[in-house]
Write a structure and sequence with these properties.
Blueprint lengths: L8 E4 L7 E4 L5 E3 L15 H23 L6 E12 L5 E12 L3 H14 L1 H6 L5 E7 L1
Parallel strand pairs: 5-6
Antiparallel strand pairs: 1-2, 2-3, 4-5
Helix pairs in contact: 1-2
């Protein structure tokens, strides 16, 4: 099947160590920096933050879409994505993820079922399934 949408971004310069990432439409234009926690100077974003923002927003959209399709009323919600950079033991790196989902208007069991269904349709979830460790926490209010 052909892609419904293709995002295009270009990274230049020194990559995560002072480079720049720009989308083809200019909407995204960020300076990259190694975080202070990794010995860098900080002061810019990094690939892990960009991935976290993408997955959190994509998963939140998937959850809202599933809820709407099932006529499930959510009064408020948020998704916090934590993306960890992990040494893989062979000189390279991988990532791990923790998604913290907050849902109001549902009981715990219904919220967990909604999150499980969203995890089946979210493109980020589908792309990473089986490739990285992913943990979920679901809280209700």
């Amino acid at each position: 099947m052909p892609a419904l949408y293709t995002a295009i971004a270009t990274a230049t310069g020194e990559g995560r160590a002072g480079g720049r990432a720009v989308s083809d439409d200019g909407t995204l234009d960020v300076t990259l920096a190694v975080p202070a926690e990794l010995g860098g100077r900080g002061g810019g974003t990094n690939p892990e933050q960009l991935f976290a923002a993408g997955w959190a927003s994509c998963f939140h959209s998937a959850m809202k879409s599933v809820a709407a399709a099932e006529k499930t009323l959510i009064t408020d919600s948020a998704v916090v994505a934590e993306i960890g950079l992990v040494a893989d033991g062979s000189g390279g790196f991988t990532i791990e993820a923790a998604l913290h989902v907050e849902v109001s208007g549902l009981d715990q069991a219904a919220a967990e079922q909604l999150v499980a269904r969203a995890h089946q349709v979210c493109p980020y979830s589908n792309a990473t399934r089986g490739n990285i460790a992913v943990r979920f926490t679901v809280t209700t209010a």
